Amino acid sequence: MKFKKSTELLETAKALIPSASQTYSKNYKYYCEGAAPAFLERGNGALVTDVDGNQYLDFILGLGPVTIGYNNPEINGAIVRQLEKGISFSQPHPLEVRLAEKIVEIVPCAEMVKFLKNGSDATAAAVRLARAYTGRDLVFCSGYHGFHDWYVGATVNNRGVPDAVAGLTKTFPYNRIRELERLFEEHPGQAACVVMEPVSMEIPEEGYLETVRRLCDENGAVLVFDEVVTGFRVAMGGAQEYYGVTPDLCTMGKGIANGMPLSLVAGKKEIMSVIDSGAFVSTTFGGETLSLAAALATIEIMERENYIRHIWHLGQLWLDKVGKLIREHKLSCVVGTCGLPPHSGIEFKTHGNILPTDWRSLFIESMVAGSILSMGVNNFSLAHSEQDVDLFVNAVSKAFTRFQEALSSGSADHLLTGKKFVPIFARNGGENT
What we know:
Strand 8 (about 220-225), helix 9 and strand 9 form a beta-alpha-beta unit. The protein has a seven-stranded mixed β-sheet, with helices on both faces. The protein has a four-stranded mixed β-sheet with strand order 1-2-3-13. It has a three-stranded antiparallel β-sheet with strand order 11-12-14. By secondary structure, it is of the alpha/beta class. It is built from 14 helices and 14 strands.
């Protein structure tokens, strides 16, 4: 594949845009510069085309928001019909009420809803509400929660965050309940909330989420589930529906509007209503109507087409076939599968001098060569088919053949044609992304 236009555009972007992208996870350093596209131009269904005209089956899906598929005519139609009426108004629009009613119907914890534009803002709003409701300052958190000070201060990417703010967030590792218990013991009566991803690539141990729920109740802390990734993907109502553990507040965003910018914070009325008594959560574009119309159309398609069953089926098919390939290629020492089927992937392990970043680089390059876009963590959409999964698995098989070559030689360097994958953001706990 040729990437002439991508390369030229990237050089221009580097001089104009920090990191040459608006989010770290779309950064060129993640995509083996020189051996992968740096810019995409259009999409249709499960296919995307880069600026050089190369086409790929996309299993990244805009980092998760494209749940139905690119350029869906039904969702596009809803956007165009609303566009003809107006985008943003001087007072609320009826679509705000309609979508709020739908969210309350679908999401277990939702009694009231506030719409925003991205997951970081929604989760920051949840933290503010929890602090206002409890009158406490400390936050205990696990997982990734965006770019606002309350969270980023607890990571190594904390330049610009005052120490006084950073010190108010304490982190704990997922699935290690004793670590959360220890935080409550060390800071009695001080925790405003526990903020966590209910599930990510690591599956919760039996009883883990239930115990977190109990600890919050016993210590008077608000339980916040960050479901920006899992909402409308693990289940319509998110991981809280799937696991049957209801938080006090939740945030959602990526799955709701098929790529249009929309997020939400929702939860118990008694907590959400503190917005009306001095806990300031307000945004001009939360009621922007094109995204609201897209969300209602997206949810209608999800319900009608049994979207959740479809993506679970495809994800399980991928996990089963890739798991079989790992065994056949005798690669369990360096690679394994992880996550729930709708949001699943490959984990890479250090082997001798070959680091996980080396394996990921080799994987990404192999996928691009096979006309697949995947960074190792996958999303599935309604537009994907079993045949698409088979094409993906075939590319993985070819990647694993290259993995065997790297194992035999003790290095992956000679097999790479572009620059290596470079993690540029470190989550709390030292995990890189």
